Amino acid sequence: MDLSGHTALITGAGQGIGRACAEVFAQKGARLILLDKNRRTLPRVVKGITAAGGEAEGHIIDLMHTEKLRRLVGTIEGKARVDILVNNAGFDRPGTTARVDKRGFGEVLGIHVLVPFLLTKLLLPGMRSAGWGRIINISSIYGLSGAKGEAAYCTAKAAVIGLTKSVAREAGRDGVTVNAIVPGLIRTPPMERMPEKYRGPIIAETLLGRMGEPEEVARTAAFLASGDSSFITGTTITVSGGWGI
Question: Closest Cα partner for 99 from 149, 64, 165, 166?
Answer without folding.
Answer: 149
